[in-house]
Write a structure and sequence with these properties.
- This protein is 49% helix and 15% strand.
- It is α+β, with helices and mostly antiparallel strands.
- The protein has three domains: 113 residues, Acyl-CoA dehydrogenase/oxidase, N-terminal domain (Butyryl-Coa Dehydrogenase, subunit A, domain 1), CATH 1.10.540; 110 residues, Butyryl-CoA Dehydrogenase, subunit A, domain 2, CATH 2.40.110.10; 145 residues, Butyryl-CoA Dehydrogenase, subunit A, domain 3, CATH 1.20.140.
- β2 and β3 form a beta hairpin.
- α1 packs parallel to α4 and α4 packs parallel to α7.
- The longest helix has 37 residues.
- The protein is globular and about 80 Å long.
Length: 383
């Protein structure tokens, strides 16, 4: 079906990103996976390319574009090439919306120019050992002491945590109340050079091996009160506000991964021969690819509609949950079937389909597990 989501500007941007990936990422991506992250200088290159500042107002050095469509283009082109930009997604799709919506003018003047240039990379620290999706159960505390907060606690599964210069840390600034477990949470934008701030283990993951994921700990870290984002005690409300965009970002990547898997399998089965015939000539191959292409088309339609809704300010938490749930499940089914069409070579890491398979598994976990999303959807339909 003809796609109407993107215009000429988006397609010109797509060519720029595609050329950049071919020149700067694809030739060295294997080295990044071995190291566990891109070299720090790569983020400066992304800054020079302008991708960090697409949605940042012009007064802070950005392009002032409000649409999510440019981020969707980047997701699609990375999936098409079988690469990633390391901590880029967290920096732009997770942290930036908080800075733009809740940052004061002084904070934006301080943080956004280096954010745009890649001089200041960011991450977000919500998950704690033992709490998982239960954000209200977090134990990291930030107690007020004069003109500072004293931060203590630990976080885990922090993507971008190894190379980050600032981390948006969710901490409890006052106790929860019996009526509301979610009360008392606040957001602090913590300088990673602070005394008492420590990066623990760099976690070894099944997939997404080019993005650094770490454990963090805070031991009497003094955070200036001017680095509190928004108002004290409203952290859970802020987190909930951005979940829809975060989940759409994951859904977009999942759709793009599934689409890339179909293209990889289609190319492979046309070249590979079995019993004197190309694999593509077998009816089973045709039927499997037809099934996959149909699922990808459905996922694309859902993603496109959700992107338009987000741009219009109308994407609800339930709609985002539906989109992420469906697209991540499609991703898992499609990538698995496409790997099967590769036979034994699908299990070999030098084939991109193997990387897509390993990377796909986390999609149904982070940004809200599938089980959490089903709960949100069920509540929305009043079940």
């Amino acid at each position: 079906m003809r796609r109407t989501l993107f215009n000429e500007d988006h397609e010109a941007f797509r060519e720029t990103i595609r050329d950049f990936i071919a020149a700067e990422v694809a030739p060295v991506f294997g080295e990044w996976e071995e190291a566990g992250h891109p070299p720090r200088g790569f983020y400066n290159k992304l800054g020079e390319l302008g991708v960090f500042g697409i949605q940042v107002p012009e007064e802070y050095g950005g392009a002032g574009e409000t649409s999510f469509k440019y981020q969707a283009v980047i997701s699609e082109e990375c999936a098409r090439a079988g690469v990633s930009f390391g901590g880029y997604g967290v920096h732009v799709n997770l942290v930036l919306p908080y800075l733009l919506k809740y940052g004061s003018k002084e904070q934006k003047e301080r943080w956004l120019p280096p954010f745009v240039s890649g001089e200041m990379m960011t991450a977000i620290a919500m998950t704690e050992p033992g709490t998982g999706s239960d954000l209200a159960g977090m134990r990291t505390t930030a107690e007020r002491d004069g003109d500072h907060y004293v931060l203590n606690g630990a976080k885990t599964f922090i993507t971008g945590g190894v190379l980050a210069d600032r981390v948006l840390v969710v901490a409890r600034t006052s106790p929860a109340t019996p009526e509301n477990r979610r009360a008392g949470l606040s957001l602090l934008v913590v300088d990673t050079r602070s005394e008492g701030y420590a990066v623990g283990r760099k976690l070894e993951k099944i997939g997404l091996r080019s993005s650094d994921t770490a454990e963090l700990s805070f031991s009497d870290v003094r955070v200036p009160v001017e680095d509190l984002l928004g108002e004290e005690g409203r952290g859970f409300e802020y987190l909930t506000h951005n979940l829809a965009e975060e989940r759409l970002g994951i859904a977009t990547t999942s759709y793009a991964s599934a689409a890339a898997a179909v293209e990889l399998a289609r190319g492979y089965v046309q070249e590979r021969t079995v019993f004197g015939k190309t694999v593509s000539s077998f009816q089973n191959t045709k039927f499997v690819l037809a099934e996959c292409a149909t699922e990808v088309e459905a996922a694309r339609s859902l993603v496109d509609r959700a992107i338009e809704a987000l741009d219009a300010g109308e994407l609800s938490p339930a709609d985002a949950a539906v989109t992420k749930l469906f697209c991540t499940e499609v991703q898992q089914r499609v990538v698995d079937k496409c790997l099967q069409l590769h036979g034994g070579y699908g299990y070999i890491l030098e084939y991109p389909i193997a990387r897509l398979y390993a990377d796909a598994r986390v999609s149904r976990i982070y940004g809200g597990t599938s089980e959490v999303l089903k709960t949100i959807i069920a509540k929305d339909i009043q079940v």
